[in-house]
């Protein structure tokens, strides 16, 4: 059972444990022998990036090039490798996507207009076929501009042509 006199000691112990948390090992890596190592300091320079299993939040392994004593560095440190596409590449990709979308929209609009035209042609062809089959007298204008009633042979030709239109437009 806890006594009231133990509360200050318990509180001090809990406070000490909470302060120890950040001081715990934050780096975790696999050494050359394959053993897992823990430390509050970064791994030695020979450890490859793929072998680092855990880093403290916000820490990146910094590559430091050390020249032998008495010699000047022969080349500047390597530039960091870009992790993603550059702004120009991103803009180009965005423009390509926009062009593809515009082209697709134009294609859909053309298809929609063509479908509307086919529906209208189909409706007209069906109306013409109904008139031809009902035996309604149909007249045409000849080369001189005179009205001439079509005969049975012309009616048969017109029926065949109208049926072909129905077959092609009324899908």
UniProtKB/TrEMBL annotation:
Stretches with biased composition (Low complexity): 156-165
Domain of life per record: Bacteria
Region span, Disordered: 35-145, 152-171
This protein's UniProt keywords: Signal
Biased composition range(s): Pro residues: 70-80
Extent of the signal sequence: 1-25
UniProt feature, compositional bias: Basic and acidic residues: 88-122
Boundaries of every DUF4124 domain copy: 15-79
The protein, known as: DUF4124 domain-containing protein
Native species: Roseateles agri
């Amino acid at each position: 059972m806890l006594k009231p006199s133990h509360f200050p000691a318990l509180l001090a112990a809990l406070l000490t444990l909470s302060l120890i948390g950040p001081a715990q090992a934050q780096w975790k890596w696999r050494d050359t022998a394959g053993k897992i190592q823990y430390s509050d300091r970064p791994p030695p320079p020979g450890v490859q990036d793929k072998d680092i299993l855990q880093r403290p939040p916000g820490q990146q392994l910094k590559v430091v090039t050390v020249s032998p004593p008495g010699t000047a560095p022969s080349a500047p440190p390597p530039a960091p490798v870009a992790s993603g596409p550059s702004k120009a590449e991103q803009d180009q990709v965005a423009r390509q996507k926009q062009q593809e979308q515009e082209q697709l929209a134009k294609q859909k609009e053309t298809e929609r207009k063509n479908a509307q035209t086919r529906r209208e042609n189909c409706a007209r062809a069906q109306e013409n076929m109904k008139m031809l089959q009902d035996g309604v007298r149909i007249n045409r204008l000849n080369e001189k501009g005179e009205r001439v009633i079509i005969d049975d042979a012309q009616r048969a030709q017109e029926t065949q042509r109208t049926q072909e239109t129905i077959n092609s437009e009324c899908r």
